[in-house]
């Protein structure tokens, strides 16, 4: 009995000492997409905000793009579980569970959930060549032209892909739109601006500047309520207002560590995350992206994980209905 107690105390002391010594080297935040995209921007702003609460730690952002985000996620799942390798990923953490028949990791089992970062609204956009200036006219145009309309997205599992699927499902169109997959948001947006494709649904982090410059037409937002605090999008209707019952989609981002990361280390990172999310500079940077910093229970590991589990179920239903799967 004494031996068991001694071992338990030794383990507890070791774990505490490990946490006290963390970080002992540079921390790498892996982003499973190319540099310059919205998730990369969120990760770089977060890295800056995390440095001080983690004792002026050196934090670098590493881009590991490919396979809808699963390459970067796999890298973190296989990393040494000491808290020095972290993952920032969006709704893809939940979507890939339905999109991929064979994943190299289990979303709910192979990561320690640290906490949620933000919610990013989506905007439904049209090409300048689309002859509609309001959502009602846009919807009429879509229903009249059916399969002739092209819907751009940034690849399977991307925010724009998931939003497009959910919008089509809610619309109950007689004919599915022609989906055009791109290798990233930038080329998809470029073709939307140029009129090679007709519509796209994507994050405000990507769309706000394009709408403001008049390069694309904005029709509606995907949130449950209007974005009253957003200077450009505050007057845009929600899709719920336009008759799509219960339509509410945001592209959230979360922070993850490899499974087996010591609990004290995970707590230390979570504590630092909570400080970072209250950093005025970080909040301002997120507001400029059109993102809303998380303040509810999802900032805690248990709330974060419960939310993702619920999202996995909801998104799988939409993906199965569309029958669009990745290899």
TrEMBL record:
Keywords for the protein's UniProt record, in alphabetical order:
Receptor, Signal
Q: Where is the signal peptide?
A: 1-19
Gene3D superfamilies per the record? Bordetella uptake gene, domain 1 (3.40.190.150), Periplasmic binding protein-like II (3.40.190.10)
Query: Which portions of this protein are annotated as coiled-coil regions?
Result: none
Q: Which SUPFAM superfamilies match?
A: Periplasmic binding protein-like II
Entry similarity comment:
Belongs to the UPF0065 (bug) family.
Q: What is this protein called?
A: Tripartite-type tricarboxylate transporter receptor subunit TctC
């Amino acid at each position: 009995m004494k031996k068991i107690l001694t071992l338990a105390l030794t383990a507890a002391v070791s774990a505490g000492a490990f946490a006290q010594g963390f970080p002992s080297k540079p921390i790498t935040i892996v982003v499973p997409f190319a540099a310059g995209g919205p998730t990369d921007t969120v990760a770089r702003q977060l890295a800056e905000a995390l440095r001080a609460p983690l004792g002026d730690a050196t934090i670098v952002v590493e881009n590991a793009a490919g396979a809808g985000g699963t390459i970067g996620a796999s890298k973190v799942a296989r990393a040494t579980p000491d808290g020095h390798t972290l993952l920032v990923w969006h709704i893809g953490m939940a979507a890939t569970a339905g999109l991929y028949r064979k994943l190299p990791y289990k979303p709910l089992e192979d990561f320690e959930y640290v906490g949620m970062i933000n919610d990013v609204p989506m905007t439904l956009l049209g090409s300048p060549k689309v002859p509609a200036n309001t959502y009602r006219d846009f919807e009429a145009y879509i229903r009249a032209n059916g399969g002739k309309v092209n819907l751009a997205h940034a690849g399977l599992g991307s925010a724009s892909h998931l939003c497009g699927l959910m919008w089509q499902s809610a619309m109950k169109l007689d004919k599915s739109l022609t989906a055009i997959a791109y290798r990233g948001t930038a080329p998809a947006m470029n073709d939307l601006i140029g009129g090679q494709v007709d519509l796209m649904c994507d994050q405000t982090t990507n769309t706000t500047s394009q709408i403001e410059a008049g390069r694309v037409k904005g029709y509606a937002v995907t949130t449950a309520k209007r974005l009253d605090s957003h200077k450009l999008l505050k007057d845009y209707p929600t899709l719920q207002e336009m008759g799509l019952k219960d339509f509410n989609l945001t592209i959230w981002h979360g922070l993850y560590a490899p499974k087996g990361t010591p609990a004290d280390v995970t707590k230390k990172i979570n504590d630092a995350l909570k400080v970072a999310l209250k950093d005025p500079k970080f909040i301002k940077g997120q507001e400029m992206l059109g993102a809303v910093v998380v303040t509810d229970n999802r900032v805690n590991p248990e709330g974060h994980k419960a939310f993702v589990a619920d999202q996995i179920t909801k998104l799988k239903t939409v993906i199965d209905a569309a029958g669009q799967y990745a290899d």
